[in-house]
Amino acid sequence: MSALLYDTEPLPGVPHLHSGARATLRWDDGATMAVYGRTVFGRDPIRVPGSDTVVLRDETLTLSRTHFELVPLASGGLAIIDRSSTNGVVVDRDGGPRPLVAGQPIELRSGDRLQLGDRWLTVEVAR
């Protein structure tokens, strides 16, 4: 299942969400990525049946082999789960950082900033 797509830059002020996408991620290097379903991220993520996997660039080795997972919710939203990563996942929302507890999902909101070791990204959730 490889439905991930690298997109061109969206128009200023207009979220760029593909039909069927659960969210768009904007990475610290400017790359954007649409997420369509359950997706596992890391330096060399473990393949999980029924999910997509994304290998992340990490020259500083601050990301774990399997760092985090995005999981679609029945409500149409998306949750993030720290997969017991060494350096953790922090959700910065409304100006305050919230470290995740490994294995405990939290629902993402548009505008959330995720800190993953030395990498970060922002989330635009489709509704």
Task: Report the portion of residues in β strands.
Answer: 35-45%
Number of distinct beta strands: 12
Q: Roughly how much helix do the residues carry, as a percent range?
A: under 10%
Query: Rough shape?
Result: globular
The largest β sheet comes out as: 7 strands, antiparallel
Sequence of secondary-structure elements? EEEEEEEEEEEE
Structural class: mainly beta
What is the rounded distance between the termini? 23 Å
Describe the structure.
The chain has a seven-stranded antiparallel β-sheet with strand order 1-3-2-12-11-8-9, with no helix packed on it. Strands 5-4-6-7-10 form a five-stranded mixed β-sheet, with no helix packed on it. Helix content is 0%, strand content 40%. 25% of the residues are buried. The protein is an all-beta fold and 127 residues long.
Could you give a quick summary of the protein structure above?
It contains no helices and twelve strands. By secondary structure, the chain is mainly β. The model is unreliable at 1-11 and 13-18 (pLDDT under 50).
Main traits of this protein?
127 residues, globular, disordered N terminus, 5-stranded mixed β-sheet
